[in-house]
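Appendix B. One record, verbatim.
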Amino acid sequence: MSNFKAFMKENVRQAEPVELKLERFAEPIKLRPLTSAESDLINDRCFKNKPGKKGRQERVFDPVAYNRGISVASIVHPDLNDTELQKSYGVKGAEQLFGAMFWVGEASQISEKVSEISGLDNALEDEVEEAKN
């Protein structure tokens, strides 16, 4: 018989932040995995209404906004909500800071690492392998 207590929140191993060293910065940034609920909230924000056929509105998903959203939500250090850090880049808000602070290649590295530590890359690889067979 299964021991359901193993699934109780207090018995689940908590994930430690993962460091990602980006060449331009003296110290690594720290990332945490995202929960499914966090991903769902970000996902919901990434749909926009666009004019479609016959003037009807269509919901269109913005994958760039989703990748940026999960990246920003995952960064533990530095704190992207820190007003002093935002001032140093001349922006307001965590997402604007992310865009100003990281080069496109760095943003891609962050997004890939977040996907990896959150288990998103494993699911996709499994689906690809299953489709091949």
